[in-house]
Amino acid sequence: MVVESYWCLFIYYLHLSSIIASGLSLFTIVVSSIGGTYAFIKQKTIDYKLFVVIISFILPGIIIGSIVNKFIKTEQFASIFPLWVIIIGIFSLVSAKKIY
């Protein structure tokens, strides 16, 4: 069962605030990710070279993001984030057309 996509149910049926629902959703994502990773380790289906490459981009991104977070106001982020999602979406569509 995929719980992490049901944050709206946390808000409407459990009457949680959006911040608590988002936190609960992130918690369920972390728990399911740990469980999935453990299962893949037991099955020996993890490409550790790819894992190291991905982690080498993720960790600096986390650090840079936490530093930048101190300088960007919520209003600025709220106006920048949708544009970023649109740009990533367009990039994904263009990349997918090249592959297929």
Written overview of the protein:
There is one protein chain. The chain is mainly α. It has a domain at 1-46. It has four helices and no strands. The chain has helices at 7-12, 18-43, 48-69, 74-99. It is extended, with a radius of gyration of 17 Å. 2% of the residues are buried.
- The Cα radius of gyration reads 17 Å
SSE run: HHHH
Question: Which class of secondary structure composition applies to the elements?
Answer: mainly alpha
Low-confidence residue ranges: none
Tally of alpha and pi helices: 4
What number is the mean pLDDT?
84
The level of helicity is over 70%
**Care to count the β-strands?**
0
Strand content: under 5%
Shape: extended
Q: Alpha-carbon distance between the termini?
A: 31 Å
**Major sheet attributes:** none
What is the fold's blueprint, element by element?
Layout: H1 7-12, H2 18-43, H3 48-69, H4 74-99
In short:
This protein has about 100 residues and is mainly alpha-helical.
Features:
extended
